[in-house]
Write a structure and sequence with these properties.
- With 70 residues, the chain is α/β, with parallel strands linked by helices.
- Helix content is 31%, strand content 23%.
- It contains two helices and three strands, in the order αβαββ.
- A three-stranded parallel beta sheet has the order 1-2-3, sandwiched between helices.
- The longest helix is centred in the middle third of the chain and has 12 residues.
- It is globular.
Length: 70
């Protein structure tokens, strides 16, 4: 599912704006992701925990930016 979402995002770059948001599962990151989606962006959300955002233009990628393994 993630691979299909990423393929969709990158194939659509010429047509739409996209954003990568870290900490997208809650707080400011979640608010920013939702606002960007409302503005028509394709959003790739990265966070340690799964996001509750459900949107056709949102891809959730679990990762910890503090970890070299992720």
């Amino acid at each position: 599912v993630i691979a299909l979402g990423l393929a969709f995002c990158f194939n659509s770059l010429m047509e739409k704006k996209f954003a990568i948001v870290t900490g997208a599962s809650r707080g400011l990151g979640a608010c920013m992701s939702e606002w960007l989606l409302e503005q028509g962006f394709l959003v790739i959300g990265c966070s340690r925990t799964e996001s509750n955002i459900v949107h056709k233009n949102y891809v959730d990628i679990p990762c910890d930016i503090r970890s070299e393994q992720d």
